[in-house]
Amino acid sequence: MSDASALRKFLAHDPRNISLNCDYLDAALSEGRIDEAKAWLREAPVDVRENAKILMREARIALITGDLARSISILRGLLEAGQADDVAVRHDLAYAQSCLGDDAAALETLASIAPEHASDVALAILKARILYRQKQYASALDALASFVTGERIAEVHGLRAMLMLDTGRPDEAASEVRKALANVPEQQDALLVTGTLALWARQTEAAMDAFRRILAVRPQSARALLGLGESLMVTGDIAAARERIERAAAEMPDHIGTWHALAWCQLMEGDAAGAKHSFERAFAIDRTFGETHGGFALIHALRGERSEAEESIKRAKRLAPEGQTARYAQSVLLLDDGHPEEARRMVEGIVARTPGNMPVMSADFIFRLRDLLRPRG
C-alpha cells in the first residue's frame, strides 16, 4: 500500500487533523496522484480548506496542473494575511510568476525575501534559472557561487554547466558535468551539456544517447529534441531529424536556432517553401540575425531569383561577415555565371569550416537542389 493510501485511511477517522491532511497531500503529490488530492480538497471540511498550510498545498496543486492564476491568487492572499511560511510562499509565487513569463515580477518576489535566506538552495536555483532565461549569465552564476555541497548540488552543477556552455567555456562546462553526474547520473542539465559537447565533437552516437536519456524522462524537452534532431541531421536521417525539430519548434517557438535547424532539414528534403517559412519565423524573432538573411539569399539563389539573392547576400554579409548560408547562396550564383569549379571550391571551404553540430551540404547536393527548384520552361 502506498503512503498516500495509508494516510487516507487514517484521515477517514480524523478528517480535521491538519498535520495528517498535510502529510496526505504531500504523499499524494509525491506519488503523482494529483486528481485524488484535488478530489480530497473539494470534499474536506471548510475549516480544513481555509487553513494556511492546506492553502499552500492547494496552490502547489494549481501550479502543477497549470492553473497559474489560481496559484498566484492563493499565494498572494497568504502573504497579505501573514498566515504561512513566508519563504516557501514567496518561492512558489516567484515560480508561478516565472511560469507565466513575468520574470520581472518573479525576481522582485525573490528580492523581497529576507537576506538571511540567501543560503536556501531552492531560492538560488530558481533565481539562477530566471536570470539564465533572461541571458543574464554572470548574475545567474553569481546566484549559485556559494554552493559547493549539500542538497540539490547535482542540479547546481548541472545548471552551472549549462551557463558555462552558453558563455563559451566548454572545458569548464565539462568539469561541472562530471560533478553533476557523479552525484545524480541522470541529471538533466548535465546530460544536455554532455549531448551538446558530443555533437560539437561529431560524436553523434554519444550525443544521441544523452539526448534520448533526457527524453525518456522528459519527452517534451525542447532542447533535447533539438539536439537529437541536429544529431540525426548530421547522420543523414533527415526525415527523423525534421520530426524532432518540428516538435522542438512547437515547444520553444521563440528560439531562432530551432527554426534555422528546421529550415536546413526542409532544404535538405527539397522543401524550399517550408524552409522559407521557417526562416520567416526566425526573422520575426530577430530581424537583424545575419544567418536568417543568408537563408533568404540561398532560397532566392536556388530559385533563380538573382536580384533578390544579391540583396539578401549583402544584408547577410553586413550582419554576419563569416556566415555560412550566404556563401552557399554565392556558390549558386557562381554556378549560374558559368564558374562551376569556383562554386565547388567555395562550397568545399564552407564544409571544411562548418562546426560539428551544423549540417553540411556538398557541392553536388547544392547543384542538384538548384536544378530541382528552378522553374520549368
TrEMBL record:
TPR repeats lie at residues 188-221. SMART domains: TPR. Pfam families: TPR_19, TPR_4. SUPFAM superfamilies: TPR-like (SSF48452). Keywords: Repeat, TPR repeat. It comes from the Bacteria. InterPro entries: CellSynth/LPSAsmb/PSIAsmb (IPR051012), TPR-4 (IPR011717), TPR-like_helical_dom_sf (IPR011990), TPR_rpt (IPR019734). PANTHER family: LIPOPOLYSACCHARIDE ASSEMBLY PROTEIN B (PTHR45586:SF1), TPR REPEAT-CONTAINING PROTEIN PA4667 (PTHR45586). This is Tetratricopeptide repeat protein. The lineage of its organism: Bacteria, Pseudomonadati, Pseudomonadota, Gammaproteobacteria, Lysobacterales.
